[in-house]
Task: structure prediction
Amino acid sequence: MTDSDPVFLITGASSGIGAATARHAVNAGYRLALGARSTDRIEAFAQELGGSERAIAVTCDVTESEQQEAFVQTTLERFGRLDVAFANAGFGAARGFTAESPEHWRSMVLTNVYGAALTIRATMPALRESKGHLLLTGSVAGRRALPGSLYSATKWAVTAMGESARQEFNDTGVRVTVIEPGMVDTPFFDKGAGPGALTPDDVARVVMFAVSQPPHVDVNEILVRPTVQPN
Result:
């Protein structure tokens, strides 16, 4: 492993799909830039994945533009390049338009939609330079509306954002993929997703499949469900 190894930036990297993807990416030879709001957790995780030579931890609230710009700048200063950016940070809400507080809704919309847009904005120049790869965590809920789900609406926005970004990046060599999982057993579900759900590792393998394709192949959307999920 050398200073020429590609660099993989992940938001929401401290748990779930983000953490699983980080483990798979470092095993595939990537250096890692890990972003999350939980400073202690993300710093410990970076040490677990090889320390400062292989992984850096940057405290980052994705709803703050300055923090996202600083995250990218720190990555470039430390590693000199950025090859893959994974806009993964996000969380959900109970279904029902009276089931959550407006404050929870506001935070979710800002994180899932505005935060993903800020990741695209912050990483775009570096991805153009490297002819890299942008990934976004969408959802099955971004392909079919769920009853009473504002979360579903945020993931429809991510699906549209991925296609908008693909069109803007067209002919630059940058690839764009929206990863759309069904039920995944992550902290998203307070009581677990139930038997038969996908694991974060399942989704991480899908991410690595997309980024491992030849440069002329752009896998734009991957919808992945557990076999027990009917819808």
